[in-house]
Amino acid sequence: xxxxxxxxxxxxxxxxxxxxxxxxxxxxxxxxxxxxxxxxxxxxxxxxxxxxxxxxxxxxxxxxxxxxxxxxxxxxxxxxxxxxxxxxxxxxxxxxxxxxxxxxxxxxxxxxxxxxxxxxxxxxxxxxxxxxxxxxxxxxxxxxxxxxxxxxxxxxxxxxxxxxxxxxxxxxxxxxxxxxxxxxxxxxxxx
Length: 191
Hints:
alpha+beta, 9 strands
């Protein structure tokens, strides 16, 4: 019986080392940005509308390809205070639907080598939830790997009517039917 104790002890030590190493590689496979940027642009006959936020959050797992992002709707800033007020109160209804969220997967995550500086084009597919409506979405993301960071940018169109956003007839010429959305993240290894 005394001979078995060192073997059990060694087995436990090896198990703990493996768990620690696995946990460390798992942590290094996840990247996060807590201050990402999101913007949208609407070009309509009577006026252009543009808004920006630097409070988007995103997590990317480079092993599984899973990705998630969200942004608070009230964090968008407009050049006119009245536009911002109408956006939050009349169209997006920010009190009722406080954030937009995306959850999906990078289908070609194997093309990304986080240890090799360079530019990569990734295909992202998932679901976006906005104004209480969830819709499928696909986009291309341009990713630059540089000094342990991943800088990612994607541009995609969203149809206003797809998200049940009501635009009064009086201002129908002020808001485009399709809004161009841009998101950019500067991912760091998640700690």
